[in-house]
């Protein structure tokens, strides 16, 4: 089964009513620099939510992306310094990040890997993947493999199954994990064959990235329910984004939406220092105040860990208490 077509140009967006035609010229340099894609179903949800909505803000290009601050950098979480072979980041002793593809079904305007993801970025070749698997096989301290990207769930069911099978066969691997936006933003891709590929002898945890409750369309909720029914353990990750979810009411609704859909909140990320994302960044103090208010008012199930990942730092670190 193929996914429905995506919008991939400013003209597509204008035709779908997501941007006014007179803004095409202003936004041309934005899409020349950063990738653009919006799946058809999401485009419809954005059109319904309106041009000033949290959905539009996350996915429709904005001229504000052309403003890059001096402190914004192309590798904001320091992946390159920790990459022993192409496609792999080994930053923490017991787990690695494996990036089989660079493409995503949708390009978030605040993406922390925005200088590295895009439709042109090819996936790992067979030889490169063999080197990745050999590295993991040779390093017995690695207990978990985290698939990221890009979005690994744009792989076909057959390729996903082959990759998870190869990783599962490595004796010292105890846990597999996939970070993806697909179940919520492009649910048509989650076919029965994909769900079958996730059911294995070793657990495959699925960490679903979503930032606003309106991302949970009827199709998204149905997709997440089918994953939960199949026994796939579900976690969330969100980015704290100015004008999207940086108020207590929205953040609470987002976390409750996760829990109501059988997704346990895992991480809330401070927006990384990626270029052209200043208009999305809250201060650490604002973030801490919000997380404290969430703690004081919402169920324990609704509490993600608020984390910061600095390029030269020790890696992801909880920042909800004032120690960094
Ligand atoms: C985020 C990340 C992981 C996973 O970290 P957890 O805290 O276990 O979720 C692993 N490797 C890299 C390089 C990462 O950035
Ligand atoms: S899905 Fe993830 S990697 Fe892809 S554009 Fe969004 S934040 Fe970036």
From TrEMBL:
Protein name as catalogued: L-lysine 2,3-aminomutase
N6-(pyridoxal phosphate)lysine: residues bearing it: 316
Superkingdom to which the source organism belongs: Bacteria
UniProt keyword terms in alphabetical order: 4Fe-4S, Iron, Iron-sulfur, Isomerase, Metal-binding, Pyridoxal phosphate, S-adenosyl-L-methionine
Family under the similarity heading: Belongs to the radical SAM superfamily. KamA family.
Cross-referenced CDD domains: Radical_SAM
NCBIfam families according to UniProt: AblA_like_2, KamA family radical SAM protein
Record: residues binding [4Fe-4S] cluster: 104, 108, 111
Organism: Rhodospirillum rubrum (strain ATCC 11170 / ATH 1.1.1 / DSM 467 / LMG 4362 / NCIMB 8255 / S1)
Entry cofactors: pyridoxal 5'-phosphate; [4Fe-4S] cluster
GO molecular function annotation: 4 iron, 4 sulfur cluster binding; L-lysine 2,3-aminomutase activity; metal ion binding
Cross-referenced PANTHER family: L-LYSINE 2,3-AMINOMUTASE, LYSINE 2,3-AMINOMUTASE-RELATED
Enzyme class: isomerase
Domain Radical SAM core: from-to ranges: 90-305
UniProt xrefs under InterPro entries: Aldolase_TIM, Lys_aminomutase-rel, Lys_aminomutase/Glu_NH3_mut, rSAM, rSAM_sf
EC number(s) from the headed UniProt entry: 5.4.3.2
């Amino acid at each position: 089964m193929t996914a429905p077509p995506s919008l991939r140009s400013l003209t597509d967006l204008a035709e779908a009513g997501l941007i006014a035609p007179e803004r095409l010229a202003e936004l041309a340099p934005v899409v020349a620099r950063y990738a653009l894609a919006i799946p058809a179903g999401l485009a419809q949800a954005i059109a319904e939510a309106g041009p000033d909505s949290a959905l539009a803000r996350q996915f429709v290009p904005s001229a504000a992306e052309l403003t890059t601050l001096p402190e914004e950098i192309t590798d904001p979480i320091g992946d390159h310094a920790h990459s022993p072979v192409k496609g792999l980041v080994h930053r923490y002793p017991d787990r690695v990040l494996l990036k089989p593809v660079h493409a995503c079904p949708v390009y978030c305007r605040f993406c922390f890997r925005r200088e590295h993801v895009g439709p042109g970025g090819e996936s790992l070749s067979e030889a490169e993947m063999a080197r990745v698997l050999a590295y993991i096989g040779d390093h017995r301290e690695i207990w978990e493999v985290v698939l990221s990207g890009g979005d690994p769930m744009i792989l076909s069911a057959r390729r996903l199954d082959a990759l998870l099978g190869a990783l599962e066969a490595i004796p010292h691997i105890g846990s597999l994990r996939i970070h993806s936006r697909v179940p919520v933003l492009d649910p048509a891709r989650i076919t029965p064959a994909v769900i079958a590929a996730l059911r294995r002898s070793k657990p495959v945890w699925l960490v679903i990235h979503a930032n606003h409750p309106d991302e949970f369309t009827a199709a998204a909720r149905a997709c997440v329910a089918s994953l939960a029914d199949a026994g796939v353990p579900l976690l969330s990750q969100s980015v704290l984004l100015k004008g999207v979810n940086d108020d207590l009411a929205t953040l609470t609704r987002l976390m409750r939406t996760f829990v109501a859909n059988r997704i346990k909140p895992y991480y809330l990320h401070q927006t990384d220092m990626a270029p052209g994302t200043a208009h999305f960044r809250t201060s650490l103090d604002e973030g801490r105040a919000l997380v404290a208010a969430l703690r004081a008012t919402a169920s324990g199930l609704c509490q993600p860990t608020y984390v910061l990942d600095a390029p030269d730092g020790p890696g992801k670190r909880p920042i909800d208490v004032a120690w960094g």
